[in-house]
Amino acid sequence: MRKIRSELTVGTAALFVLLQVGCTPAPEKPAAQAQPAFTGVVPINDIMVDVVDHNAHIIWNATDPKKAPKTDRDWHNLEYAATTIAVAGNMILIPGPPKDDQVWTSDPAWRQFAEDETKAALKAVQAVDHHDLKALEAAGDDIVVTCEACHKKFKPALPAHVAKPNEQPEHYHTAADE
Hints:
CATH topology: Four Helix Bundle (Hemerythrin (Met), subunit A)
CATH class: Mainly Alpha
Number of helices: 6
Number of domains: 1
Distance between the termini: 103 Å
Helix content: 55-70%
Largest sheet: none
Radius of gyration: 29 Å
Oligomer: single chain
Shape: globular
Low-confidence stretches: none
Order of helices and strands: HHHHHH
């Protein structure tokens, strides 16, 4: 009888331990650290003019037979321009100091235009990687469509247009010019 009682006591204790272990909640995973708040230090308009517009002209101009890429350096410059525009799509989601920036970035349409800009620029990156001028032209067209639609909604007084060489000669440089 003692043997049975002893076995029952051991069995009950083992069952109790198993139940305790099985019912104990899993240890909590440490909470993911919160991302730091990003603060825009440059107005979005400056990013658009100095980063997006400048680099978009480099892409658009490459489809002109006189300005088409001829060297590895030309293709590298195009890759740089396309990659820069793709990154700018994320940069313009962070409002800078002006109040307009806060208004724009809170609008879902702005977010969509930023995403469209990034997608078009990534198409340009892929076209450059394949040295495909037709695909680069199509990606450049997508950039124009996105720019014009965004301007229509957010900056209707400032029409988007592709500058001519005499308007912005700094965009019309290739390695062949050296």
